[in-house]
Structures are given as C-alpha cells and as structure tokens.
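Methods — Computational structure assignment.
A single polypeptide chain was analysed. Its primary sequence is given first, followed by the predicted tertiary structure written as structure tokens.
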Amino acid sequence: MSNENADRMVNAGVAGADHLKIQTAEALEDAARKLRKADVSAKGEDIKHILHDVEYRVNQFKAEVGAEYHKIEVDYHKRVEPVEHIIIDHPIPSILIAAGVGVLIGMLLFKGRD
C-alpha cells in the first residue's frame, strides 16, 4: 500500500469523523437550546422527549462511526493482505530487502550527522 493510498484512506476517515462530530454537536446544541427555552413549568415528559432525542442522535452517531471504522478497517486489510502473502511466500527475499532498506536508512542518517 502506497503512502498516497494510506493518506487518502486516513483523510477520508477523518473527514467522515469530522462530519459526524459536527452532526452530534449540532444535536447537542439543539437539545440545549430546547432545554433553555423550556420554562420552569415544563412537563417532565417534554424534557424526557428532548433527552431521548439527544440519546437517539448520539446512538445514531456511534453506529455511523462504527460503520465508517469497519469500512476503513476492511479497506486497510484488503490492501495489506497481498503484501503479507508476498512476505509469507518469499520470506528470504523479504528479509534481504528489509535489511537493505535498513542499511540505506542507516547510511543516510550517519551521513547526515557529518
């Protein structure tokens, strides 16, 4: 999986979470407004209705976030599994490539200190 794909996946997840966060904040602000407008003599049933509405919206938010998280997780696994299979099928070349990359990074870091 390339960095560009990973970045796109993370950005999409963050954008979705931001949208859901805004929806939940709006629901809570709406409930707070309704509670402020309710006069002291408001019936307990009216207040319960407002609170149940908030509870419903928060539960809906949790369900949407869970679904979005599941979608991101499935997409991640779909992209990572081929790499895992390559490593499992070819362990020696994978180790040699990883060691080579490590040596190159080490050389760059060591060279950067000079």
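Note: The mean pLDDT is 78.
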